[in-house]
Amino acid sequence: MNTREIVIWAHSECRSTMALFREVKRLSGVPVTIALWKHGNDDDVRMSRETCGQPAGQYADLGLVPVGEDFEKGMSLLAKHRGPGSVHVFCVYQNSPVWRKLVLNAKDLGSRVVVYAEAPCEMCTGVKALAKRLYYRFILPFKVRKVAKAADLFLNQSGVKGVGRLLRLGWAKEKIVPFGYASEVGMIFTQRRITAPCGWTRPVVKRPSRAERVPRGAEPGSCLHVLHTGVESKYRDVGTLRCAADLLRKRGIDVEVKYTGGKVDAANLPGLYAWADVFVACGLCEPWGMRVNDAIHAGLPVIVSDGMGAKWLVEQFGCGCVYRHRDVHELADVLERMAKDADFTARIKSGVKAAHEAWKPEKRAKDFLEIIER
Q: Domain holding 47: CATH number?
């Protein structure tokens, strides 16, 4: 197929995808239009900025077109970009009946349709999680099955996670392609670890010389510096990390953990990444986990639970370890090995560098463009 234009119907101005779309626009060689579902001062957009350290207006250069739930505005955009050679990539379909109609209309107008979205995932615990599981099994399939039939491909933002649920929604197995998130590279990849005292509110950042920039990792016998970023909600399961750190101290392992909590000041993040030896993400049920990409781009080994879609990235490149969610002892064992086994840490560091190169937005944009040409 010869693509003559691409229209991306994005969820919001979130850097989990916007850096990728910027590179798609730069590399595609054809006109690229980016429409938005969530925009402006929407609560979801504001929360994304606050928890990820994302400044407002970061992607204003992309010429974003707000559409929201305005069906007429969406149809007007479809009318301008229609027919053979037009590729429409929709990042929203589960949560919006309006955008589901737009998907079907794009197909009826002769355009190629690709869905790039997460697999269903609770991102909560308890009764709410049970209610969502029932909704995904018994109600959502009837809402989205026409979209699943009309679309040519489903690029899974959750990696290989949730494929069974996608099949139950009506997606054909041959249409599902694992993809994940591709956030921008905002940190120096190979910074030397900073040993000076560094509180997360006022980090000390030392710029290493080119000769000093070496992949980082824990040094056997030293204090193991562990970083956790993001909101400390129940489904993020921060308690498992706290318990694992306590267990390590009982074993005689010197460990210090920093938690950023909710809002993040982007200016503080470089100092945190430079301070840390390893990044830990304990999510119980997360579609991906963009903070894992951030840590890899900052040169950190990552330890993630098997409840996160980003485990696919970690397993692909051996840039860290995957442990069973809620398993305090398994997490503690991995951290202890990081603190004691120099060869193990060295192997992981080489994987971090490979993952960093392969998951830069520029590289993922090339993968994206190759996939939608199938």
A: 3.40.50.2000
Task: State which amino acid sits at residue 255.
Answer: V
- Rounded CA-CA distance 52/359 in Å is 18
Chain segment 129-163, per-residue pLDDT in tens: 999 999 999 999 999 999 999 999 999 999 999 99
Number of domains making up the chain: 2
The overall average pLDDT reported for the chain is 88
337 and 368 inside one domain: no
Q: How much helix, strand and coil, in percent to the nearest 5, is found in the chain?
A: 45, 15, 40
Domain that holds residue 178: 5-182+361-372
User: What is the pTM (predicted TM-score) of this model?
Assistant: 0.89
* Number of helices and strands in the chain (H, E): 14, 12
pLDDT number for residue 193? 36
Q: pLDDT tens digit string along 338-351?
A: 999 999 999 999 99
**13 and 25 together in one domain:** yes
Considering the domain architecture, whether residues 174 and 236 belong to the same structural domain is answered as: no
